[in-house]
Amino acid sequence: MYWLYAKHHILPSVYANMDLGEKVVLRAFYAKEIEETLKEQARLNKTMGR
Prior knowledge:
Elements: H1 2-8, H2 12-16, H3 20-47
């Protein structure tokens, strides 16, 4: 829930009132964002010679 609030300005009450299907989709988006962030970090580490 912190990710939704801090990164996407979605209040906890808005999340709590979402249908289950919407919550599933948001979790999938979260997983995808984490995957992309890790790939970018790996790319940057490789570029920096780490």
